[in-house]
Specification:
The structure holds two protein chains of two kinds.
Chain A (H helix, E strand, L loop, with lengths): L2 H6 L4 H7 L4 H4 L2 E7 L5 E4 L2 E5 L5 E2 L10 H11 L8 H6 L1 E3 L5 E11 L2 E14 L12 H4 L8 E5 L5 H14 E2 L3 E2 L3 E5 L20 E5 L3 H11 L4 E4 L5 H12 L3 E7 L3 H5 L2 H8 L5 E6 L6 E7 L5 E4 L1
Parallel strand pairs in A: 8-14, 8-15, 11-12, 11-13, 13-14
Antiparallel strand pairs in A: 1-2, 1-7, 2-3, 3-4, 5-6, 6-7, 9-10, 15-16, 16-17
Helix pairs in contact in A: 8-9
Chain B lengths: L1 H51 L3 H12 L1 H15 L6 H12 L7 H12 L6 H48 L1
Classes of the chains: A alpha/beta, B mainly alpha.
């Protein structure tokens, strides 16, 4: 199934009939679809916010915009969960569902609490379908900075949301795992894919191309996952997405002490930004990461802003 | 000769009305069987949702194949429709399946309304609510079964004897 088919099969009937009208080549460039009850549908295409008309045209004119109602959202949620919200309780608690192919759908609504914890979400108010794109080869430019003869450096990818952090990580994993002839032989990569975004697993099988030497623990919490991989799969490299909690840091140190190389991503817009966060500051000060890649949106998603040597904190490359 | 034909006619009449009486009596028994099967199906479905956390389309198909019979067809068909990911919501698909297969069963209009109200709450609820929905449905079915049982005890023998007696009455009147 291609991306359009996957997205169409996760929409309620009215929205499905609307989105089927968007031509394939335009659909490919859509990054996000935002649905809000009684509000116009908003589509992010090439970084631009557009509305969709009832005929399926993307336009900037709000007058012609198609508006969703509460049924559209509840039908869509039914489709996304395979009519089985009860099987997605954990995901609903975290506020997102992952579709086959690794597309993540953020959900907001009324939260139901029980004993001080989030129990579930009812009355869905809005959704954000983030279409994940595989950009094969997008990591080629930065790879020479991240590889040494036998292995890779401990790498931290710093990026604001929507700048292609996960896409870059995915391609990095693919290339490291496959190897790059003739300069680099592939190494075993273990991926802890907490939100099913990197590998886009469906029933445990990666749907995205993440290389031939890659093992994925799908939907697994990072801390447990990294330890499990260390014990069971003897990886040379472990890759995880969006670190930031204190316990993540301990797991990272454990893995490093075991001689495994790490590739992580983190939300932030600059090195300074990261140094302000207490947990991550510690990582930088201990000079744990040898390379830091900073992304921005200056020239569209995936712009490499800078690559910094983690030890000397000096830039290695400037775009 | 005429007497003989009359006798055969009389026997046919009595046999015919007797069968009508028996059939009326049997209809209740068949409906009871269907209600019991339906109840069993809902208990299975609850198990699939509560313990196995099977996605609804698969759960429906599994329940359908375990139950079999005409009742099972409703579940199997609903599961198939849901598996196609057409975009219609669960209650619409369930209604579709019920409408298609209910005429093959002995279920009454009341039973159908119970089935449809079950469908209205299908698909968008969390586990606890989904379980409550099924429990409520089972409760309604039990209620219907009790009523039917009472009705059957009261009227079953009546239908049977009324069948024979009305046949005899017609024969006597015609003679």
């Amino acid at each position: 199934m291609n991306t359009k088919e996957i997205i169409l099969s996760s929409l309620g009937i009215r929205l499905k009939d609307l989105f089927i009208k968007i031509p394939e080549h335009e659909f490919k460039r859509i990054q996000e679809i935002r649905l809000r009850v009684n509000k116009p549908i908003m589509i992010v295409k090439d970084g631009e916010f557009l509305f969709i008309t009832p005929n399926g045209y993307l336009s900037k004119n709000i007058e012609q915009a198609f508006r969703t109602d509460i049924r559209d959202l509840s039908d869509t949620l039914q489709m996304m969960s395979d009519y089985s919200i009860y099987a997605f309780e954990e995901e609903m608690r975290n506020g997102y569902i992952t579709l086959p192919g690794g597309h993540r759908v953020g959900i907001v609504g009324k939260i139901i609490m029980e004993n001080g914890h989030i129990k579930t979400m009812r009355y869905i108010g809005g959704m954000n379908i983030r279409i994940s794109h595989q950009v094969i080869g997008c990591a080629s430019k930065i790879l020479p900075y991240l590889l040494n003869e036998r292995s890779v450096f401990h790498t931290l990818i710093i990026s604001p949301p929507r700048c292609g952090k996960t896409t870059l990580l995915r391609d990095l994993i693919r290339q490291i795992s496959n190897g790059i002839t003739p300069m680099f032989k592939g190494v075993t990569v273990g991926v802890v894919d907490e939100r099913s975004e990197i590998a886009g697993c469906y029933q445990g099988i990666p749907q995205n191309d993440i290389g031939i030497r890659t093992d994925v623990l799908d939907c697994c919490p990072k801390v447990e996952g990294m330890r499990m991989l260390l014990r069971s799969m003897s990886p040379d490299v472990i890759a995880v997405d969006e670190i930031g909690k204190a316990e993540d840091i301990h797991a990272i140190e454990d893995a490093m002490n075991a001689g495994v190389k790490l590739i992580c991503t983190v939300h932030g817009s600059s090195l300074l930004d990261i140094q302000r966060k207490p947990v991550l500051k510690e990582l930088i000060e201990k000079k744990i990461f040898e390379r830091m890649v900073i992304l921005s949106y200056r020239n569209g998603p995936g712009t490499i802003d800078n690559i910094i040597d983690g030890v000397s904190l000096k830039p290695l490359m400037r775009s | 000769m005429i007497m003989f034909i009359k006798l055969i006619g009389a026997i046919c009449t009595v046999i015919g009305t007797t069968f009508i009486g028996l059939l009326l009596d049997k209809l209740d028994v068949y409906r009871m069987n269907d209600l019991k099967t339906l109840q069993k199906a809902f208990v299975f479905l609850k198990g699939e949702i509560d313990y196995m956390i099977t996605p609804l389309p698969l759960a429906m198909e599994q329940v359908g194949s375990r139950i079999g019979s005409n009742i099972g067809n409703i579940f199997t068909y609903a599961g198939e429709l849901m598996g196609k990911k057409t975009g219609y919501n669960a209650s619409e698909l369930w209604e579709n399946a019920v409408e298609r297969y209910i005429d093959d069963t002995y279920l009454s209009k009341v039973d159908k309304s119970i089935l449809l109200s079950f469908g209205n709450a299908l698909g968008y609820l969390d586990k606890e609510m989904q379980k409550n929905n099924i429990n409520l449905c089972i409760l309604y079915l039990e209620d219907e079964m009790k009523k039917l049982d009472l009705h059957h005890q009261k009227n079953g023998r009546l239908y049977r004897s009324l069948g024979i007696l009305s046949g005899l009455l017609i024969v006597i009147l015609l003679y």
